[in-house]
Amino acid sequence: MQANKSRDTKPELMLRKALHALGLRYRVCARPLPDVRRTVDVVFRPVKVAVELRGCFWHGCPEHYRAPTANDSYWAEKVRRNVARDEDTARRLAEAGWLLEVVWEHEDLRQAAERVAMAVWARRRAAQG
């Protein structure tokens, strides 16, 4: 598992490129909550929008996750812990006033970037009054 990149994966780079093309600037692999030791893939700190790009295998995608046949009990527990951590992170962000946009790796990343941009722009407008 050490060979699996934790950041700058191909889908992340594609999503970030699409966000940048829409004129958005952001922080990468940042901690939106300073007291929680977790990072989010893309952070728009001024408007409190966080974006997580989740891999279908590692995060138990409801559409595409297929459990491996070898060492299945290990993988089931591993993915269960990942999903529980994702839910906890989403809860903590919501309690702190953040909007979490979840993007799955199987999604069209340009459409996902547009969805994120709409959320960021809506929060900017709301903050301006």
UniProtKB/TrEMBL annotation:
Pfam families, A to Z: Vsr
GO molecular function: endonuclease activity; hydrolase activity
SUPFAM superfamilies found in the cross-reference section: Restriction endonuclease-like
Signal peptide: none
Coiled-coil intervals: none
Record has DNA damage as a keyword: yes
Name listed for the protein in its UniProt record: T/G mismatch-specific endonuclease
Organism: Actinokineospora iranica
Lineage of origin: Bacteria, Bacillati, Actinomycetota, Actinomycetes, Pseudonocardiales
